[in-house]
Amino acid sequence: MGIYLFQIINGIGLGMIYFLVAVGLSITLGLLGFVNFAHGMFYLLGAYLTFQIVSWGGSFWAAAVAAPLVVAVLAFTLERAILVRTYKLPHKYQIVATLGIVLIAQEAVVMLWGPLGNGVSVPDSLGGVVSLGNFQYPLYRVFVVAVAAVLAIALWLLLERTTFGALVRAGSESSEMVKLLGVDVRTLTSLTFALGGMIAAVAGVLIAPIRGADPSMSGEALGIAFVVVIIGGMGSFTGSIVAGILVGVVQSVMSTLWSEGAQLMVYVVMTLVLIAAPRGILGRA
């Protein structure tokens, strides 16, 4: 029983990482109806920037601040310079454009840091363990859950209790109506896109000491992010949290019961949710 409890706790931590990756994608889909296959790139860059800053002699804490800010600026610039030109095009063109961007980013990562993964050390202050009953759990993973929970609360307050959040929610319903109210929708969408990229970069920073940074992590993150969005419901913040934890727990527990099918079971859960609730757990019409 202890091993399953350990895996459930481990899955919650993994699920919170999935939530951070997926929530920006969910918000962007809800506001713009834009299919962004380059979203995993922000997660990838967050991890690699963390590795680079630590390699230069900087601390993990400096990387945790600098990497998301750099990625946010990059996301803002990318949206303004390239992606805005695809908003009115069919989704197939958005998919091709964003896939092209992520492939360029992956090749650039391979050229700069090599094709193999690069490890990032856990900060010394978080290198211990926490006793949970009869077993011990890494302190850093507890830290990840705590940080993700704080960010989830902060994001919920931003989206539900601020003017910016009200405009984002209104824009997801009718961008034309928001324009008629005198709001600069272009700036709103750019800031929302940058926010999503920054959150995904935070997930990359947090995951770097756990799994390191490697070129393939972008595609892995993107696949899981879409699963979380589908299960939770497009544009649903709370749905992203619930779905992220559900996917993390299923994947973690199944890695003990049936390691070869752990990834498969994630998609089985997604299929069952789609059959029972096509809009997702907390999706809207």
From TrEMBL:
Family per record: Belongs to the binding-protein-dependent transport system permease family. LivHM subfamily.
Main location per the UniProt record: membrane
Protein name: ABC transporter permease
Chain ranges passing through the membrane: 12-38, 58-83, 95-116, 139-159, 187-210, 222-250, 262-282
InterPro entries per UniProt: ABC_transp_permease (IPR001851), BCAA_transport_permease (IPR052157)
Topological type in the membrane: Multi-pass membrane protein
Species this protein is from: Pandoraea eparura
One Gene Ontology term from the biological process aspect of the record: amino acid transport
Annotated localization: Cell membrane
Keyword vocabulary terms for this entry: Amino-acid transport, Cell membrane, Membrane, Transmembrane, Transmembrane helix, Transport
Single GO term (MF): transmembrane transporter activity
Origin: domain of life: Bacteria
One family name in Pfam for this protein: BPD_transp_2
Any one GO cellular component localisation term in the record: plasma membrane
